[in-house]
Design a protein that fits this description.
alpha/beta, six-stranded parallel β-sheet, 385 residues
């Protein structure tokens, strides 16, 4: 029976689009397809047009009090998704539901099928942590928390990529059967170990990779670049995904690469091949797939000990993690240290690749998720993985 298990991939978004959640849904879908004979996509689901009018009206009402309305987490959408997916499930032969970041979709889902809810965080943890999850009205916060609670309670197990997220869910939402399964690098064809061997016989190349300049710590990066320049270091910083706040002789920008396009994917891989250090002093981060991708290419990371970053980057092993309060001077010191100690940089590069092979790839993720999905299908007691 286990060899015939059918998995329902439940999400209102389209997993086939590599732009959706940075390609994570796509990689999850493909990883599960390698583990099970059939994975049925239950989405995408398009919201009716009148929802736009209602949300605009609610937004205006909330703005009178100087607050925001959370249009992503609300009863109207959640109950609509519950209705749509309930109808879909009646027409499908499915054994287990896998619901990634689908709290809104499963909160009002009425099914006897076991649900595995996977998320990189939960609403309460995101509230006031990300700018996009800030300044919500009290009623909107209350509603969002209720939806999150219903989703977690409605699930047979709850899986997160970091202890940061899992511990919060257990403490604040009483999440049961909770596991930590790290996500992998979003790379269709990973490079071989020999292909990413670094020699460092050129000027050091740094990479800033992200679409949100401010949240990813862009201002700190600029200050660090200025300090390294004043100290006379010859280096290059590539900025990919956004435009720097200002130009600098040591900075080259590539505003956007679409991973759905073969030529852009090739350019993205080339960028990581050529990178010596990923420099991303992020201000807020639930996980960070980019860190997994850096590890795949043997690229050490200099970032911030915030959110779930420490589940990927081990300070002093495959990179450095500085406290959130650290200034540009501290980051400058770390980069300067690695520039002047190529042997340490080399060791970190090897450790980064090792971590990718052992933990940070989708094959490992898929095998562990298979164990969990079989466990809840067979209604087995919780066990460590």
């Amino acid at each position: 029976m286990e060899d015939e298990l059918v998995i329902g991939f439940l999400s209102a978004r389209d997993p086939r689009d590599k732009r959706t959640w940075s390609g994570i849904y796509y990689m999850m879908w493909k990883a599960l397809e390698k583990q099970f004979p059939k994975v049925i996509l239950l989405g995408p689901v398009k919201l009716p047009l009148f929802f736009t009018f209602i949300f605009a009206l609610l937004h205006i009402i909330h703005r009178f009090n100087g607050k925001r309305f959370n249009k992503k987490n609300n009863y109207l959408i959640s109950k609509y998704y519950g209705y749509v997916f309930n109808k879909k499930l009646k027409r499908k032969k499915i054994d287990v539901l896998f619901a990634p970041t689908a709290s809104v979709e499963i909160a009002y889902l009425n099914t006897r099928l076991p649900i595995c809810y996977y998320s990189d965080s939960s609403f309460g943890q995101l509230n006031e942590y990300y700018a996009s999850f800030s300044n919500f009205s009290k009623s909107s916060i209350k509603t969002s928390n209720r939806i999150e609670q219903r989703a977690i309670s409605n699930s047979a197990c709850n899986v997160y990529p970091s202890s940061w997220a899992a511990d919060y869910a257990k403490l604040n939402y009483k999440a049961k059967n909770t596991y930590v399964i790290k996500m992998g690098a979003n790379i269709d064809i990973p490079p071989t170990k020999s292909e990413v061997t670094k020699h460092y016989n050129h000027k050091i190349k740094l990479l800033f990779l992200g679409v949100d300049w401010k949240r990813k710590g862009g201002d700190i990066v600029l200050e660090t670049v200025e300090q390294l320049t004043k100290k006379g270091y010859d280096f290059q910083l590539m900025v990919c995904g956004c435009k720097p706040a200002r130009e600098h002789p040591h900075i080259t920008a590539i505003p956007f690469l679409d991973k759905n396009k073969a030529e852009d994917r090739k350019a993205f891989n080339k960028l990581l091949y050529d990178t010596d250090i990923l420099f991303l002093p992020t201000r807020a981060e639930c996980y960070g797939i980019v860190f997994c991708e850096a590890n795949a290419f043997g690229v050490p990371v200099i970032s911030t000990d915030t959110g779930g970053v420490s589940s990927i980057i081990e300070d002093g092993v495959n990179g450095f993690l500085l406290p959130l309060t650290a200034k540009a001077e501290a980051y400058t010191d770390k980069i300067e240290y690695l520039i002047n100690n190529k042997n340490v940089l080399k060791k970190m590069s090897l450790k980064a690749r090792e971590k990718y092979e052992e933990e940070l790839n989708w094959e490992v993720w898929g095998k562990k998720m298979r164990e969990i999905l079989l466990m809840i299908f067979n209604n087995e007691p919780q066990k460590s993985l």
